[in-house]
Design a protein that fits this description.
Order of helices and strands of chain A: EEEHHHHHEEHHHHHHHEEEHHHEEH
CATH superfamily of the largest domain in chain A: Cytochrome-c3 Hydrogenase, chain B
Structural class of chain B: mainly alpha
Largest sheet of chain A: 5 strands, mixed
Strand content of chain B: under 5%
Order of helices and strands of chain B: HHHHHHHHHH
Number of domains of chain A: 2
CATH topology of the largest domain in chain A: Cytochrome-c3 Hydrogenase, chain B
Oligomer: heterotrimer
CATH architecture of the largest domain in chain A: Orthogonal Bundle
Radius of gyration of chain A: 22 Å
Number of domains of chain B: 1
Shape of chain A: globular
CATH class of the largest domain in chain A: Mainly Alpha
Strand content of chain A: 5-15%
Distance between the termini of chain A: 24 Å
Chains: A alpha+beta, B mainly alpha, C alpha/beta
Strand order of the largest sheet of chain A: 1-10-9-2-3
Number of helices of chain A: 16
Radius of gyration of chain B: 20 Å
Chain lengths: 397, 329, 146
């Protein structure tokens, strides 16, 4: 492997600041083919775990929600589950069902968002618009249920913060589900059968089952490679034991498989929501927190991107001693190495997109030409642009 | 007496150039860009911008600062946009539109072909002069794309030239007015199809928007441009959206002339001009919004292999048709 | 003439979006404004890829230490007249992350801000309203250096 060659970093253009920035992805390429990948993270770093140690347990609930905008309730849920595990609180039934409802609605919204973005990455802007159009009813439903389109702030340790007036909301919820069920299903079929889409997604970025296990991948990334793992089924929380989940799995492991897993999950979520709304019991929505023990707790939750784990350590006060968050993308990132190697640079953006990564578009991607010992540094959006146009950014003289 | 006539002719010519070049060409071009944006919006379940949008965009850009990057070659950077616009307008002025052009001459087809490449070359000049590597990448891609489509394009354009037996627009148009548009012959139809594909690439529309980005990302060769310079580039592009359909209409669809000597024929001609141009513009919009981007290797393959092959077939058929005397071939 | 230019500026606001370290919600709601439900292209709003092509700089996020110098750079690259919108509570004040050690913002500590759109995240309607207010400022600027 000619990585010992002298690598020259070429800072590109006036858009890049004068100092060198550590890059997020370093792709080592030989011609068009990716031969190795190095990943560095830390750009969205906002010091969340540090801040958590300076807030009360209740305040941290709102902090962790803002770890990620798209899977905000996943983090809230997970953290509260960790607290409940530590304090040995039992969540009332109705609260569990409401948590399920919110969680599944978020999964639908997240997968629709991702589908739009993925299609945008391969140049299908019309379909991007289409998918996001069907996201709107879900966002509006959230607003009616919780008061906000995103960052719903519904969950708290011990239960949920707000009740749902089922008499009023049940018909609305079912209406929205019906409204999006058929168009999304039809759209998914159209996309999966489209020749051009298949050409970009089928057989691309394959993650074999062994690699998926070796790299400890989670979520749809793992389920696209044949691993039947889903926290909702393996260690049911909220109301999943009663409602049941049909875990969607595909075996090919390519970008198309991961896409189809997510689409099928949308349909499954619609089903779960319909069952949840029908089966929701009456009762209290919040359990009382009676004391602040010295304890540790772990919460596990199946976010749209995979398994989230929160760990909390309580020391008898209202301020947590330590909060540790392991987000699913962190687990899935290393698996990008086998997914990228052997494929062309131009496929890289869609392969990166297929794990549904949760980082912003000002990330850096740098591409190292091992043959010529050159490095080219790009921002994520430029990198995606190369992917959409299937260009090789190294062909710059 | 002669002197007066000559002065009159020059005067009319100047008026023609000013009117057609400064009034008609850019404004119709801007209108066509609005058609594209509106159609695209409607196809995406959106409403789209109001009809004055392209003009608002142009005035806004003209009123902004033009920043020249320190790393740029200033003269070339600033000259590129006016060169692009001037070439597009001149190409239009040489072609017949409604009336015969006062600037016509034998061989004007070749000159117009060259002039229609100039906006792309100007973009490359400007991009290279920008001193910005993203622009350089865009330039590189533009160059490769231009090389791949010009050959089948010229081959396709040779079909009407051969059949009409002339390198003069006026002759090609009058031949079609007497004997029917070349679209109605086999070789003409094939060459027409190739031309549509090339038009799409010349305007950098999907599936061939390879050198320049559509919305949120890099702008390829235009990345460093701002203010009036950018406005001129965009105006040049809008003008090409008018010039290219005019070219294709002149070559294959029977031209855009009006027979003023007969009021009924004239009315039909006027309507046909509008129909021909609008159909071409709408076809390009439909292709643009229905297709994702092609990969460069796909695009180059399409032009070097498929388009060239079909254009060659069309050319061969047209040679046969001329030699053997079968106009429908 | 001045009236025509002002009219054109208000009718053709091109946005450049800069994420300086956010949870992405504000970014999503901004992109959402482009989608069929809100369709800001109706108002001539376009999301541009190059800061040189834009009139309005929309900043989301807390402006963490990596982003701060980049944000300044991008601001300087935009031609006048231009306005800056701080989108979201984080960009406006740092929000819940204000005490973080990685916080180099909020935005007005790094570049001048014309319009603040608070909200976590602000709704697309609020974003559109904020852009409209920014346009009013743009009208008054007439190409002066800031």
């Amino acid at each position: 492997m000619s990585r010992d060659r002298e690598v020259v970093e070429i800072p590109l253009g006036p858009y890049h600041p004068a100092f060198k920035e550590p890059e997020m992805f370093k792709l080592y390429v030989d011609g068009e083919e990716i031969v190795d990948v190095k990943i560095r993270i830390g750009y969205q770093h906002r010091g969340i775990e540090y801040l958590a140690q300076r807030m009360t347990i209740q305040q941290v609930v709102f902090l962790v929600e803002r770890i990620c905008g798209i899977c905000s309730t996943s983090h809230q849920n997970c953290y509260c589950q960790a607290i409940e595990d530590a304090m040995k609180i039992e969540v009332p039934d109705r609260a569990r069902y409401i948590r399920t409802l919110i969680g599944e609605l978020e999964r639908i919204h997240s997968h629709l968002l991702w589908a739009g973005v993925a299609l945008h990455l391969i140049g299908y802007d019309t379909l991007f618009m289409y998918f996001w159009r069907y996201r709107e009813p879900v966002c509006e439903l959230f607003e009616e249920l919780t008061g906000n389109r995103q960052h719903y702030a519904m969950i708290c340790p011990g239960g949920v913060r707000r009740d749902i007036d089922l008499k009023k909301m049940r018909p609305k919820i079912l209406k929205v589900m019906k409204e999006i069920k058929e168009p999304v299903a039809k759209l998914a079929d159209a996309v999966a059968g489209d020749k051009l889409v298949r050409a970009r997604m089928s057989g691309v970025g394959v993650l074999t089952r062994q690699d998926a296990i070796r790299y400890c991948t989670v979520g749809p990334t793992a389920r696209g490679s044949g691993l039947r793992i889903d926290v909702r089924a393996d260690e049911p929380y909220a109301a999943y034991k009663e409602l049941g989940v049909d875990v969607k799995v595909m075996t090919e492991g390519d970008v198309l498989a991961k896409t189809l897993v997510r689409v099928q999950e949308i349909m499954e979520s619609i089903g779960i929501i319909e069952r949840c709304v029908d089966a929701m019991p009456n009762g209290p929505i919040q359990a009382e927190i009676k004391e602040y023990p010295v304890a540790e707790g772990i919460g596990k939750y199946e976010a749209p991107r995979g398994e989230v784990i929160h760990y909390v350590k309580l020391n008898g006060t209202t301020v947590p001693e330590r909060v540790k968050v392991r987000a699913p993308t962190y687990a899935n990132l290393p698996s990008l190495v086998p997914q990228l190697i052997g494929y062309s640079i131009a496929d890289a953006p869609i392969i990166l997109g297929s794990i549904d990564p949760c980082f912003c578009c000002t990330e850096r991607v740098s591409i190292v030409d091992v043959r010529e010992g050159r490095t080219v540094v790009l921002t994520m959006s430029e990198f995606n642009e190369f992917g959409r146009k299937r260009k090789n950014p190294l062909k710059v003289r | 007496m002669n002197m007066a006539n000559e002065l009159l002719a020059i005067g009319v010519g100047v008026l023609y150039v000013i009117f057609m070049g400064f009034v008609v060409a850019p404004n119709v071009g801007l209108f066509f860009t609005w058609i594209h944006r509106k159609l695209g919006a409607r196809m995406q379940w959106r409403v789209g911008p109001p009809i004055y949008q392209p003009w608002a965009d142009f005035v806004k850009l003209m009123s902004k600062e033009t920043l020249v990057p320190a790393t740029a070659h200033r003269t070339v950077f600033l000259l590129a946009p006016p060169i692009a616009l001037f070439s597009a307008v001149l190409a239009f002025l040489i072609m017949p539109f409604v009336v015969r052009s006062p600037l016509e001459f034998t061989g004007d087809v070749i000159v117009v072909l060259y002039l229609m490449i100039m906006p792309a070359i100007a973009a490359m000049m400007g991009g290279s002069a920008s001193g910005n590597p993203y622009a350089a990448i865009g330039v590189q891609r533009e160059m490769t794309l231009v090389f791949s489509y010009e050959f089948p394009f010229i081959t396709a354009v040779l079909v009407p030239v051969l059949k009409a037996g002339s390198l003069r627009f006026a002759d090609i148009v009058s031949y079609q007015m007497e004997r029917g548009p070349f679209l109605l012959s086999v070789s003409g139809a094939i060459a027409f199809a190739v031309s549509i594909m090339v038009m799409q690439a010349k305007l950098a529309f999907p599936p061939f928007d390879i050198p320049e980005a559509k919305t949120e990302i890099i702008a390829g060769p235009y990345t460093e441009y701002s203010g009036a310079s950018l406005a001129l580039f965009k105006l040049a592009h809008a003008t090409m959206l008018f010039v290219l359909p005019c070219f294709v209409a002149n070559m294959f669809l029977g031209g855009l002339a009006i027979r003023f000597y007969d009021p009924i024929a004239a009315t039909i001609d006027a309507v046909l001009i509008i129909v021909k141009l609008l159909v071409l513009v709408i076809v390009m919009a439909l292709i643009r919004f229905f297709y994702p981007r092609a990969r460069p290797d796909q695009a180059f393959g399409m032009f070097w292999k498929a388009a060239t092959a079909w254009a060659a077939i069309a050319l061969t058929l047209s040679v046969v048709s001329v030699m053997v005397g079968l106009p429908y071939l | 003439m001045a009236g025509l230019i002002t009219w054109a500026r208000v009718k053709s606001p091109w946005l450049f979006h800069f994420n300086s370290g956010s949870c992405n919600n504000c970014d999503i709601e901004l992109v959402d404004a482009l989608t069929p439900r809100f369709d800001v292209e109706r108002f001539g709003v376009l999301l541009e890829g190059s800061p040189r092509h834009a009139d309005v700089l929309v900043v989301t996020g807390i402006v963490n230490r990596q982003a701060a110098p980049r944000l300044k750079r991008v601001y300087e690259q935009m031609p006048n007249p231009k306005v800056v919108i701080a989108l979201g509570t984080c960009a406006t004040s740092g929000g819940i992350f204000a005490e973080s050690y990685n916080e180099a913002g909020p935005v007005d500590k790094v570049i001048p801000v014309d319009v603040y759109i608070p909200g976590c995240p602000p709704r697309p309607q609020a974003i559109i309203d904020g852009v409209v207010k920014a346009l009013a400022k743009l009208q008054a600027l007439k190409g002066e250096r800031r």
